[in-house]
Amino acid sequence: MRSKEVLKQLSPYKQGKQTKDIQEEFGLDYIVKLASNENPYGFSDKVKEVFQINEPVFNIYPDGYTSELRYLISEKLNVRPESLIFGSGSEEIIQMLCRSYLTVGDQVIMATPTFPQYKHYALIEGAEIIEHPVNEDGSHPLDKMLDSVQDNTKIIWICTPNNPTGTALSKEELEDFLNKCPSDVLIALDEAYVEFLQPEKDLNALKLLDKYPNLIVLRTFSKAYGLAGLRIGYGIADPLIVETLDKVRGPFNTTSAAQQAAVIAFSDQDFIQHTYQKNKKVLKQFQSFLTSIGWDYYESEANFLLVKTPESGMDAFDYLIKHGFIVRPGELLGIPNTIRVTIGKEEDMKVLENVLRDYQEQLN
Fold it and tell me: How many domains would you assign to the chain?
């Protein structure tokens, strides 16, 4: 049997080491996972309460239109119901975009490093990838990205705050980019970490959708909402884009449990505010600590920090994992000599600081 030739050049996604594996390998009881930018505070108690009371119904197919969640988000965000598309995480919508808009010979443009699935799914469809290294501060090189637009350019990916650097666009930068970009090029704006932005730095991207019908905004319930294990996200775009994506979307692609949990979680904005405030405080404390030991980092507007390490990121990763902390080495993210650290609970981050201080003393 023959698969697509391009698949021979690709590798399956490899998740990081799991807690149980590390417990067995190193004989550790205290393990903190800071590798996947999950919410260390869990998810809304209201979600927990509902699922404890109501028995789940697994024998009936879910609502293929995601009606309840659709109308809730439509009302709260002031967007049309037909402007919403739902996926098994926003990652599935990235896959839908590539399946819908890309064929062999088409071109996509993105920064590097950024979320790797943009490139992965585009390659599967036979697209040509144009990558531009991020600026020194970790931000998107928007002018260079615009300069590389050609007649066959179909999608430009913009991740803000960018994963893994954590840097975010300004409103002025985004609008200037949208004004200069050809209207037949789809702009995919990935806002997976939008809930962690300071209010004054929110792009208010949804207000731009009517003016720029080639824009799609992607969001997820996996990060701030703490529903990573249920896999549900959404996109907001012109109804014509949504109609196109719906043609490649599976008929029951989000589960009943995910839809129900997302409805409850989205309604509990107090939990989101709690998460935001906690993250803001602990992030600032961790940045101050890193400065105190002479380590640099990229300024972050998210729930993680890309830290520049004095030796390779893999060396720092190996040291930390032996002490019970799972982080993501930059060598696996396309930016060597760094580690990406999810901002965890304050008490866990204090322990991490002590481990890093010992590591730095050993290097000295």
Answer: 2
- Residue 292, domain member (yes or no): yes
Query: 229 and 274 share a domain?
Result: no
Q: Chunk the chain into consecutive blocks of 10 residues (it has 364) and report each block's average pLDDT, rounded to whole numbers.
A: 87 78 85 96 97 90 98 98 98 98 97 98 98 98 98 98 98 97 98 97 96 98 98 98 98 97 98 98 98 98 98 97 96 96 98 98 91
Domain that holds residue 308: 5-43+270-363
Output the six-digit token pair for 266: 């989205």
- Packed helices 19-26 and 313-322: angle between N→C axes, nearest 10 degrees: 70
CA dihedral for 162, 168, 173, 178, sign (positive or negative)? positive
The pTM of the full predicted model, rounded to 2 decimals, is 0.96
Give domain status of residue 48, yes or no.
no
Q: Are residues 138 and 227 in the same domain?
A: yes
Beta strands in the chain (DSSP E): 32-33, 84-87, 107-112, 128-133, 153-159, 186-190, 215-220, 233-237, 304-308, 325-326, 328-329, 338-342
**CATH number of the domain within which 282 lies:** 3.90.1150.10
Distances 52 to 45, 58, 131, 267 between C-alpha atoms, Å: 11, 15, 47, 18
